[in-house]
């Protein structure tokens, strides 16, 4: 399907400012550029505990013996055994940290009335597939098996994330189905990375918007798949999975000016065709991470409300 190639008017000045920033020193690896930017973002949006919600770091030991951070947001004064969202941050698999999404997760935890646990998984290219998904899935299992430690109901667990976090969320859902643990009630996929091949129309169209364009996306996937260039496992690239039945109900959101548009839409369609309750939202003129770029836009507000509503229905 052909979508109108036009940015939403409210994005134009924001993108102009975003893309006019000084270029990094020549030869700087792309992952270092993104890591520095997201570290600065984390410093700006990081939050601390308040009288309505606690923010704390807990840790588990992954299968490689590495202590792995879990950033936990717990609403106060609303009882015990709360629903839980196990969250995976974005960053193209090669950058990012839980704190970059603190303000979003703080507000979501309060609005939904749930605990949110964000995992600090290992980054590529230093730790390519399967290290990131292993950290995410092992963290998910740890949280579900230590429900009392996190004040959660193990029968009301969802997974979610944006961009690379969407990719890792789909893989966690597939692993949970394969291993029959934990029981998931929902997966929330915000402009998810799902296809490494760069063959969709949106991948060919979105080349110079300046926010996670084609070359950036292909580079991110090359970092993720560094050790599996041939015979790529379905688990690594969920769009390749033929059987998507018996997965949890799903929320998918993407903008029409996002390089990931078509793969997100295709995955939602495949889920629905497999009998999975699937909710798809497409935002005209919006780019990757539009909710962060223009948080006060109608599209961003509608998106946030729709995502929160989907979580609440899944937890009912």
Automatic annotation (TrEMBL):
<dbReference type="InterPro" id="IPR050300">
    <property type="entry name" value="GDXG_lipolytic_enzyme"/>
</dbReference>
<feature type="domain" description="Alpha/beta hydrolase fold-3">
    <location>
        <begin position="85"/>
        <end position="290"/>
    </location>
</feature>
<protein>
    <submittedName>
        <fullName>Alpha/beta hydrolase</fullName>
    </submittedName>
</protein>
<keyword id="KW-0378">Hydrolase</keyword>
<dbReference type="GO" id="GO:0016787">
    <property type="term" value="F:hydrolase activity"/>
</dbReference>
<dbReference type="InterPro" id="IPR029058">
    <property type="entry name" value="AB_hydrolase_fold"/>
</dbReference>
<dbReference type="Pfam" id="PF07859">
    <property type="entry name" value="Abhydrolase_3"/>
</dbReference>
<dbReference type="InterPro" id="IPR013094">
    <property type="entry name" value="AB_hydrolase_3"/>
</dbReference>
């Amino acid at each position: 399907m052909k979508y109108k190639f036009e940015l939403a008017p409210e994005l134009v000045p924001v993108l102009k400012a975003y893309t006019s920033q000084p270029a990094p020193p020549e030869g700087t690896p792309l992952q270092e550029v993104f890591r520095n930017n997201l570290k600065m973002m984390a410093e700006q949006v990081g939050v601390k505990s308040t009288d309505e919600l606690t923010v704390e770091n807990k840790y588990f030991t992954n299968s490689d013996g590495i202590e792995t951070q879990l950033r936990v947001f717990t609403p106060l004064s609303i009882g015990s055994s709360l629903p839980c969202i196990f969250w995976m941050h974005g960053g193209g698999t090669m950058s990012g940290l839980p704190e970059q999404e603190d303000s979003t997760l703080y507000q979501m935890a309060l609005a939904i009335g749930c605990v949110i646990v964000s995992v600090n998984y290992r980054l590529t290219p230093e730790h390519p597939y399967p290290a990131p998904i292993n950290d995410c899935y092992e963290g998910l299992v740890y949280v579900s098996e230590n429900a009392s430690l996190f004040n959660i109901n193990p029968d009301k667990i969802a997974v979610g994330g944006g961009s690379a976090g969407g990719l890792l969320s789909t893989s966690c859902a597939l692993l949970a189905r394969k291993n029959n643990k934990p029981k998931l009630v929902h997966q929330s996929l915000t402009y998810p990375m799902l296809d490494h091949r760069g063959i969709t129309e949106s991948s060919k169209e979105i080349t110079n918007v300046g926010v996670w364009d084609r070359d950036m996306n292909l580079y991110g996937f090359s970092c993720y798949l560094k050790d599996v260039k041939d015979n790529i496992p379905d688990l690594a690239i969920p769009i390749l999975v033929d059987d998507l039945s018996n997965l949890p109900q799903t929320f998918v959101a993407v903008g029409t000016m996002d390089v990931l548009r078509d793969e997100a839409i295709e995955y939602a369609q495949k889920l629905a065709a497999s009998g999975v309750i699937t909710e798809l939202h497409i935002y005209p003129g919006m780019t990757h991470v539009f909710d962060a770029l223009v948080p006060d836009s109608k599209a961003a507000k509608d998106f946030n409300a729709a995502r929160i509503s989907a979580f609440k229905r899944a937890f009912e």
